[in-house]
Design brief:
heterodimer, A: alpha/beta, six-stranded mixed sheet, B: mainly alpha
Chain lengths: 240, 202
């Protein structure tokens, strides 16, 4: 279907370790559609970060296929993958990863300028993106003039600026207190509801609750997935 | 315990003014999302007891002729005491999930990861659905409902953490002890087989 933004099919990632091999991912299939946020949980070493790196084209799977916005990464050379990453995929990290010497708007505009947009057009898109995460007033401030929560919202704006429709978030609330974390998730969720697709790696079940689905990784395999939504009010009225 | 909670819950509803019987039911329902499932009969019985104990008194009728009740001074004092008394009796020790997993953990023929997985999927589904409700809830409009949902969310978060802990603990112990004779996955189609093989082993 055309609204599939990310598709992993039977992805394996094997690392050589001395004489033997370690399967970081052992046949993972995952589809994320526009408007969908999928949380990935699992113990450390279960393959969460590898999954995210492969989904973002930062790492190449040993076998299986990765498709972003209808384009199969395996068929591209490294330059084309880099362009696809820059134009289609945004990352949000635990430690925000904003460029300290650039203002919030410049940070958000950066991937567009690197992609060839004029400075003026890039800034206009950046302002729109900042507006969408509820931070129009911080456009000309530098990261160290922003709170952690604000920096993370700027990072989300950058992750989804322009044509970018896939956000890969690795513990985005890891460095934030619980109220700020909720504010960040609210923004992320709003952007997803607006048509983006997202993968959220988290070890906090409470934050995974914001996703449409949660998948659990164990030893490189998906072991379970949250089923479809129920009528939550009925769930409350008739505790099972 | 549940009856006691209803008694105090009802009493607390009177702080913002006189109410009639059915109104109590509606308010309790809205504020707990119906999860208390208190029937009208129980509301009226409890209300009668509150009147009998002098914590609530009748206060005429409203324009539609419905009898109104209000909090008395002793009722206000009792309510304040309730707020200050920590809850000690809970149903926690009798939680079915706790019993199930604690039992499963000591049975070497049970594959604990599968038991945990089934539960985790269900707990996660509930957590997601409550989170949806919480996102729609407005603290300014209904603080009780919002905080009640937070309670459910935090409880499920704790439950999920505990599930991870159970799984990790059992696996760690099994890796450092002799392997069990056999393991099973308690999925429905296999249940009969399990019972069979269990009997055969014994």
């Amino acid at each position: 279907m055309s609204d599939v933004v990310l598709r992993l099919a039977e992805v394996e990632r094997v690392y050589r370790a001395g004489e033997g091999s370690v399967w970081a991912l052992a046949g993972v299939s995952l589809t994320v559609r526009a408007g969908e946020l999928v949380a990935v949980m699992g113990p450390s070493g279960s393959g969460k970060s590898t999954l995210l790196s492969i989904a973002g084209g930062l790492e190449v799977p040993t076998s299986g296929s990765v498709e972003v916005a209808g384009v199969r990464l395996g068929g591209l050379d490294s330059t084309a993958v880099a362009h696809l990453r820059r134009d289609r995929i945004g990352y949000v990290f635990q430690d925000f990863n904003l460029v300290t010497d650039l203002t919030a708007a410049e940070n958000v505009a950066l991937p567009l300028e690197l992609g060839g947009s004029s400075a003026r057009a890039a800034r206009a898109s950046a302002i729109t993106a900042l507006d969408e995460v509820g931070l129009p007033e911080v456009a000309d401030r530098f990261p160290d003039q922003l709170s952690g929560g604000q920096q993370q919202r700027v990072a989300i704006a950058r992750a989804l600026v322009g044509e970018r429709r896939l956000v890969l978030a690795d513990e985005p609330t890891g460095a934030l207190d619980s109220q700020t974390s909720l504010a960040v998730l609210q923004v992320l969720r709003a952007r997803i509801d607006g048509g983006a697709a997202g993968v959220l790696v988290t070890h906090e079940a409470r934050y995974a609750g914001w996703a449409d689905r949660t998948v659990f990784l164990r030893d490189g395999r998906l072991v379970d997935t949250t089923p479809e939504r129920d009528d939550a009010r009925r769930l409350l009225a008739e505790p099972s | 315990m549940q009856r006691n909670a209803v008694r105090w819950g009802l009493l607390a509803l009177f702080v913002d003014g006189p109410k009639y019987g059915y109104q109590l039911r509606t308010e309790l329902d809205t504020r707990t999302g119906g999860s208390w499932a208190v029937n009208v009969g129980q509301i009226y019985t409890t209300l009668d007891r509150l009147v009998r104990d002098g914590l609530v008194a009748t206060e005429g009728a409203d324009a539609e002729g419905r009898e109104l009740y209000m909090l008395t001074e002793p009722g206000r004092v009792a309510l304040a005491e309730w707020y200050l008394t920590p809850v000690t009796e809970t149903e926690r020790p009798r939680n079915e999930l706790a019993i199930k997993l604690a039992m499963a953990a000591r049975d070497p023929s049970v594959d604990i990861t599968i038991v945990v997985q089934h539960q985790r999927t269900e707990s996660m589904r509930q957590l997601r659905d409550y989170t949806d409700l919480r996102r729609q809830a407005n603290e300014d409009v209904d603080l009780t409902w919002s905080l009640f949902l937070d309670h459910l969310i935090f409880a499920l978060e704790g439950e999920l953490r505990w599930l991870d802990h159970v799984e990790a603990t059992v696996l760690r112990r099994r890796y450092t002890r002799p392997a069990p004779a056999s393991t099973y996955a308690p999925t429905p189609p296999e249940a009969a087989e399990i019972a069979e093989s269990g009997r055969a082993r014994r």
